[in-house]
Design a protein that fits this description.
alpha+beta; 6 helices; 48% helix; 134 residues
């Protein structure tokens, strides 16, 4: 492990950062759902997305450009994963399946492998280990 002190610049100037204060352990989080299913409008904040979509629709761009920008605007939606986990716990099997398929929830390690999410995690871990050994 690197025991280097790095200079980090932020809005308030430079500060020393001790690399040893961060854990290198990768551990899967576990979550205990609440007893109450949240309202679906609580699990995602689309306010910025909708603002951008309104601006795009009001623009003088052609239809294809608008469609492209509207798809791109959707990435500004903010998901509340704690509430998503609660919603999942109280949903129908069909909703749970589709939430898993959309990677909103990863419950089953084997299913995560099937859907390709574990390969992504393995690739990130490989790159992380390569950086650590530099």
């Amino acid at each position: 492990m690197n025991d280097k002190i790095y200079k980090q610049t932020n809005l308030f100037g430079q500060e020393d950062r001790d690399d040893t204060i961060y854990s290198k352990k990768i551990k899967s989080p576990t979550y205990e759902p609440s007893n109450q299913k949240p309202n679906i409008i609580e699990i995602v904040d689309t306010s910025k997305t909708m603002q951008l979509i309104r601006e795009i629709q009001d623009s003088s761009l052609d239809k294809e450009e608008k469609e492209f920008l509207i798809e791109a605007a959707r990435r500004h939606s903010v998901f509340n994963y704690e509430k998503i986990a609660d919603y999942y716990a109280h949903s129908s099997p069909q909703m749970q399946y589709l939430m898993e398929k959309s990677a909103l929830i990863i419950i089953d390690f084997e299913k995560a492998i099937q859907l390709g999410y574990v390969r992504l995690c393995e690739k990130i871990q490989e790159e992380y280990l390569e950086l650590e050994n530099e």
